[in-house]
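Before the break, one more example. Copy the sequence into your notebook; we will annotate it together after we see the structure.
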Amino acid sequence: MLTIEEKALAAAKEKNGVFVVKTIKASGGCFDNEIKDIVVELHHELKGSELGYTVMEYEGVKVYIERYLRILDDVLLYQRFKLPVIGGIFKVKGIEVKYM
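Here is what the structure looks like once it is written out:
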């Protein structure tokens, strides 16, 4: 089940946008292993193919979740804070990185 917090939902509806949940990779750790983190971005539309994403919807706002992520039972998308120039910074709970 997907839930979008009020502030994040208002930001998406104001921009008529969609959320994209994806991973970013960085090297690090003891043996220079790849470390993955989850980022949430707000876009006007998804650019490119939808094939690599699982699509969920909440009150008319679509959320595209990269297929490399594991979706747990309850997913909460929320706005952590808002910066004057950059805008909202969003996070998600209930989704984790699948490591091989």
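Strands lie at 2-4, 18-28, 33-43, 53-58, 61-66, 69-83, 87-97. Residues 2-97 form a domain with the Hypothetical Protein Aq_1857; Chain: A; fold (CATH 2.60.300). Try to locate both features in your own notes.
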